[in-house]
Amino acid sequence: MTAHPTPGHTARPGGSASPGNLGPGAASGSPGSPGSPGSSGADGAGGLSLRPPRHPVDRRAVGWWTGQALVIVAPPVLVLLLLALLIPPARFWLLLPALVIAVPGLVYTLVMPRWRYRVHRWETTDDAVYAASGWIWQKWRVAPMSRIQTVDMIRGPIQQMFGLAGVTVTTASAAGAIKINGLDRALADDLVERLTARTQATPGDAT
Amino acid sequence: MNGPAARTPTTPESRTGGNGEAGAPWSRLDPGLFRLGLARSLGPMAPIAVTALVARERLNLQTLITLGGILATLFVIMVIGLVRYVTTRYRVTAERVELRSGLVVRRHRSVPRDRVRSVDLTADPLRRIFGLATVRIGTGQNDEEKGLVLDGISRRDARLLRTALLGRAAPADSVITELRPAWVGYALLSSWSLLIGLAPFGVFFRVLDAVGVSPAEVGSLGELWESVTETHPAVVVAVAVAIVLAIGLTGTLLLYVEAWWNFRLTREPDRTFSIRRGLLTTRSVALEERRLHGVEMAEPLPLRWGRGARVKAVATGLAEDESVVLLPPAPRAEAHRVAAAVLAGHVPAESVASTTPAGSAVLAGYAPPAPASPILAPLAVHPRAALRRRVSRAIWPPVAVAVLFAGLAAWLSWVPGSLWVAGALMLPITLLLAFDAYRNLGHGLHGPYFVTRYGTARRRTVALRRTGIIGWTISRSPFQRRAGLLTLGATTAAGSGIYKVRDVSVAGGLAFAEESVPGLLAPFVR
Q: B451-490, pLDDT tens digit by residue?
């Protein structure tokens, strides 16, 4: 645990002033361009729309999601390539499925992490936690502080390699927890602490 | 804990005395359990032992080992049962319910009385013969470990125990609804009838397979097959459908009677609902009113054609697959009346008497009685884009079927070329379902309730108490983003955990969320 709550780390969410981080709004403005994720909040035809949460996740999350994608895509392709090398007569029938997996797999590995990065955002207020996730199918979730039961930090092996951590906020609902993944580790620590203190200070029966 | 008092078996009556923690005596399970254990093991053991003795000349070693194994297993089961009877003690003190059991691993479990939320009695046929019941004392939490199960006390004691723990007087409860024989017809409209009809055939061939007999080798089956192939196919199909339907309907009927015999939903004086039902196995469930966050009305398509519905409780503290049914398949008017009565906090006067007039008044929509069912609330219509989404979903499967069959026919010579027509025939049906699904979509508020309706094969209408909503989940697929729709999910601790308003317009959905739970979503809306 390299706890460096340096200003650089903690200021990251608030100081998301780089144009890339403000992308979502801009992205939805160009629906014509192919691959434009349209990752802004729900933009309604008239009146109300959902605004994206304030903070993006850490930029390193792109690397983490790429790693995750490779873990899924690479092994079958490598096995098929190895077999093709070892069994010359069946080479064509081994390379064909390898290609069939590799091409969409490559697209997935390149597109998914970047798309996710534009969608995944989070925000906490005094009263609620608000997080957006997904890429093709997108989800925005809100839970009030008074209904939060537990706040946990989770660090998977690949996430650790990138110095990242995830925060999981559970409520009494069986529909699943709010997960904010791909945060800087020090920031996640800080967030867990703040949320825990905040939920304890907020009266509520959490049901 | 191991004081001399702990060893003294006492009469059940002394159990509920308001003694202090130390003073309350421990009781044993009912001796009937002892006899039940003996009967259950000795019953099968006797014929096996007699057979082995009579035929001992002709038995080979393998059969002997098998029979010996069975006898040993039954013996072990009997011993385990006896040990359980001998080692189990329970008591109810002024503060807590305690249960001690186990010979090698001693377990002591105690539940504070003020945490007891439900006391459920069940009795399977074997236990009923011996006058026993199983009591499940629940604390209203999902965790099974936190409850307490007393298996094998006399039914009289079980009822006394429930009265003691929940503090209720039996005659003061008021009946909300009771099973009426005419409702059996609605059971036949349950969508599973046909599948039950198929089950015996599946089991039959499974058994043949397990024994290692090929169906063709069974003489009578072979003859049957020959006569079948000689008959006209239309007759064969008609007979087969008739047989499956007959078995299915009979099975459904038997299951319905077993499950719902003597069904009775009552409101107890201590703000608890009590549900009793069952012919062979009697079930009794107590549901605290404060655990009830709403109701769900389900109308599978056949049941909807018959103007019937079922009602389920949306409650907290249930296990994952557990559900509390408030009304079995019954007339829709009755479903509305039960929903209204359960949610309103008091029973309408006409409840016990014949209810059809009141029900039809509610249905007709004029001057509804005081507790109007939230399920009857006028619901907002969803945007046309939701219909487009359903229609496009309805077009894909038939097209896929047609293309698949056409492709197969082109590729394999033995596949008939006209099979793609199946896809074309499917299209009108799926389109009808799509229109029905769109028509069924709706959402609205009814006083303290959030109401949503969706589905076609099984239409569901859920009324959820707004104070029970503990968060929002908004999801959007690419289609929804293009069409300006979203799916709004209200998360809750009760029932399935999330109840969705599908395919509502963005502005409409967000406004509805804000109206349902003011202030929660507002900071994130612009």
A: 999 999 889 999 999 999 999 999 999 999 999 999 999 9
Bridge partners of B315? B292
Residues of A in contact with B481 (CB under 8 A): 38, 42, 138
**Do the domain assignments include residue A84?**
yes
**CA proximity to B355, closest of B363, B346, B344, B367:** B363
Flag whether B286 is in a domain: no
pLDDT in tens, B270-317: 778 888 888 887 788 888 888 899 999 999 888 898 899 999 999 887
**SS3 state of residue B257:** helix
Could you give the number of structural domains in chain A? 1
Amino acid identity at B169: A
Work out the number of other CB atoms within 10 angstroms of the CB of residue B461.
27
Pick from B472, B475, B497: which is nearest to A174 by CB?
B497
Q: Structural domain of residue B206, as residue ranges?
A: 186-260
Residue contact A48–B526, C-beta within 8 A: yes
| SS3 at position B346 | coil
Last residue within a domain, chosen from B210, B239, B260: B260
Residues B405, B409, B415, B419, CA torsion sign: positive
Taking the Cβ of residue B321 and every Cβ of chain A, the question of whether any pair is shorter than 8 Å is answered with: no
Of residues B476, B509, B523, nearest to A125 (C-beta): B523
- Chain B: closest CA distance from residue A171 (Å): 8
From the list A44, A130, A171, the residue facing B524 with the nearest CB is A130
Residue in B290, B321, B473 to test binding to A, most A beta-carbons within 10 Å: B473
- DSSP letter string over B130-191? TTEEEEEEE-SSS-GGGSEEEEEEEHHHHHHHHHHHHT--GGG-EEEEE--GGGHHHHTTST
Inter-chain contact A44–B505, Cβ cutoff 8 Å?
Answer: yes
Tell me, yes or no, if A54 comes closer than 8 A to chain B by beta carbon.
Answer: no
Nearest to B478 among A51, A127, A136 (CB): A136
| B189 neighbors B303 (Cβ within 8 angstroms) | yes
Compute φ and ψ for B357, nearest 5 degrees.
Answer: -60, -45
Cα-Cα-Cα-Cα dihedral of B162, B168, B170, B174, to 10°? -120
- Token pair in block for residue B74: 């039954």
ipTM of the prediction: 0.77
Decide which of B239, B260, B281 is a domain's last residue: B260
* B279 contacts B298 by C-beta, under 8 angstroms: no
